[in-house]
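Dear H.,

Thanks for agreeing to be a second pair of eyes. The structure we're designing against is below in C-alpha cell form, covering all 235 positions.
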C-alpha cells in the first residue's frame, strides 16, 4: 500500500542531545490491493457457491492517524502511530456456477477493509538546507481489521450458451434472480478474511520547520489473511 500523507507535528532543533518526544497528526490517500485474491466470498445463499475474483486491481482509499516519535539522538529516532486506513481492492466478480447455462459477471466490485494499523519503525534524519530535513524510516507494522464489505458492482453482464450478451443494473437483476447476494462481510469467521495482519513498511518524510511535512510510505503484508486457501497478502 502506497500512501501520500500530510503530517503536522511539533518541529524542534535538537539541543545538547536531550531526548524528546514529538506528537502529530497525519492524513492522506492510499493505493491498495490484495495479492493472489481469487476466491471471493460473495456466495448466493441458495447454493453457497463462492465465485471468482478476476482482474484484481488497485483501490483508492484514505488514511488518518496520530503519530508518536521518540528521539534517541540528533539523527536516530523511533517512530510509531495509530492509523485508521480504508484499503482493499477492486475486482470483477464472476459467478459461473450460480446459473448453469450462463456466465454472470459483476464489473467494478469492491473489497473494502477498515483497518487500525500500528507501525514500529526506526528512523534516521538527514539535514538538508534550512528549513528542510529528510527522514527515512522502516520496520514492522501490526494491523487489525475492524469492519468492511465485499460489494458487487452496480452493473451485471451475462453471456448465454447461445452467445447472447446482456447487461443490466444489479437492482434489476436481483428482481429476476432471487437470492442474489449483493454484499458480504469482509472479516468473517469462516469464509471471510482474517482480521489480524502483520508486515513491513518503509517511508520517506520531507520535514519543514513550519510543522507541515510530506511523506510517502509503502507497506507489504507478510501473513496470509485468506480463509479460502488463496495465500492472500495485502500490498
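And this is the sequence the design step returned. I haven't edited it by hand at all.
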Amino acid at each position: 500500500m502506497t500512501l501520500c500523507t500530510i503530517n503536522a507535528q511539533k518541529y524542534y532543533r535538537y539541543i545538547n542531545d536531550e531526548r524528546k518526544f514529538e506528537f502529530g497528526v497525519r492524513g492522506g490517500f492510499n493505493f491498495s490491493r490484495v495479492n493472489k485474491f481469487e476466491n471471493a466470498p460473495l456466495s448466493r445463499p441458495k447454493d453457497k457457491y463462492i465465485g471468482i475474483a478476476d482482474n484484481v486491481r488497485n483501490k483508492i482509499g484514505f488514511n488518518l492517524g496520530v503519530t508518536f516519535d521518540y528521539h534517541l539522538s540528533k539523527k536516530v529516532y523511533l517512530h510509531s502511530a495509530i492509523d485508521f486506513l480504508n484499503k482493499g481492492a477492486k475486482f470483477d466478480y464472476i459467478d459461473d456456477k450460480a446459473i448453469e447455462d450462463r456466465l454472470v459477471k459483476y464489473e467494478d466490485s469492491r473489497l473494502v477493509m477498515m483497518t487500525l494499523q500500528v507501525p514500529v519503525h526506526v528512523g534516521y534524519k538527514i539535514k538538508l538546507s534550512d528549513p528542510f530535513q529528510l527522514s527515512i524510516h522502516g520496520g514492522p507494522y501490526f494491523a487489525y481489521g475492524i469492519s468492511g464489505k465485499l460489494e458487487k458492482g452496480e452493473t451485471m453482464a451475462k453471456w448465454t450458451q447461445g452467445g447472447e450478451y446482456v447487461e443490466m443494473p444489479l437492482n434489476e437483476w436481483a428482481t429476476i434472480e432471487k437470492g442474489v447476494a449483493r454484499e458480504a462481510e469482509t472479516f468473517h469467521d469462516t469464509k471471510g478474511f482474517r482480521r489480524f495482519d502483520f508486515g513491513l513498511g518503509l517511508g520517506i518524510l520531507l520535514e519543514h520547520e513550519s510543522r507541515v511535512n510530506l511523506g510517502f510510505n509503502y507497506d507489504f503484508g507478510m501473513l496470509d489473511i485468506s480463509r479460502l486457501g488463496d495465500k492472500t497478502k495485502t500490498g
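Two observations from my side: The helical segments are 170-176. The mean pLDDT is 84.

Warmly,
E.
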